[in-house]
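We were asked to recover a plausible sequence for a given structure. The inputs and outputs are reproduced exactly as logged, with field labels preserved.

PROBLEM: sequence recovery
POSITIONS: 247
GIVEN STRUCTURE:
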């Protein structure tokens, strides 16, 4: 009887496994219940992993950076990425373990729209003020879109940290000619889609302060020439923070 019982269990086990394989699921890393229309991660990611799925994750947690230390979007899941994932998890009340699994992905799916933009920002908020969309800048339209998307995710994190009140983008990408027309700095990060000028429900200094741990190396705000009616944030390689009325 016992032998028969085991044999039956064995059959059931094999049947379950083959169903799992047919469904494309992995035994170790259960797939999320529903596919996401932007991107669905197929496996748990943690320190030591690398690749394009890590890069996609980094884009989405980059706003949860350490103070003054932006997350490198390099496709390598190191301690910096793990720490950002932990802050993301903490910020949304999830289990904090620095590992990107179904719960973390589920939160990302809740936040991202079908075009991969975060819930509270859209490409249309970042197009050039002269009607040229994302063209006419100092880099390709495709690079501009990539840069804008990355900044949007940083802003989504900032927005959540600031209590979910709206942030308004008064200027995002600028074509070179529009940048010249509005008196922007030559070679401004706006002409790459890497900058956003903000106003909103918060004080300009609160925006500037929050940006310091949201992955922005470029912060220009109150007290800096021409920046008393908005806070400028950008993604650049070295730190330039200039908001003397704030910090
Ligand atoms: Zn600006």
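RECOVERED SEQUENCE:
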């Amino acid at each position: 009887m016992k032998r028969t019982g085991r044999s039956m269990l064995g059959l059931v086990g094999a049947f379950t496994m083959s169903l799992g394989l047919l469904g494309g699921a992995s035994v170790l890393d259960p797939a999320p219940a529903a596919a996401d229309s932007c991107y669905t991660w197929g496996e748990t990611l943690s320190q030591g992993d690398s690749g394009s799925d890590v890069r996609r994750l980094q884009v989405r947690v980059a706003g949860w950076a350490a103070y003054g230390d932006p997350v490198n979007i390099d496709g390598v899941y190191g301690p910096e990425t793990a720490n950002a994932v932990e802050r993301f998890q903490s910020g949304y009340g999830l289990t904090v373990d620095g590992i990107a699994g179904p719960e973390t992905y589920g939160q990302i799916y809740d936040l991202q729209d079908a075009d991969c933009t975060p819930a509270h920002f859209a490409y249309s908020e970042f197009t050039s003020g002269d009607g040229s969309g994302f063209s006419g800048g100092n880099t390709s339209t495709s690079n501009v879109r990539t840069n804008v998307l990355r900044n949007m995710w940083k802003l989504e994190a900032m927005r959540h940290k600031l209590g979910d009140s709206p942030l308004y983008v008064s200027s995002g990408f600028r074509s070179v000619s529009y940048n010249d027309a509005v008196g922007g700095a030559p070679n401004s990060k706006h002409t790459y889609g890497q900058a956003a000028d903000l106003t909103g429900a918060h004080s300009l200094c609160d925006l500037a302060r929050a940006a310091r741990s949201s992955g922005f190396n470029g912060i220009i705000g109150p007290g800096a020439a021409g920046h008393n009616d908005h806070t400028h944030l950008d993604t650049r390689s070295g730190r330039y923070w200039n908001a003397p009325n704030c910090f």
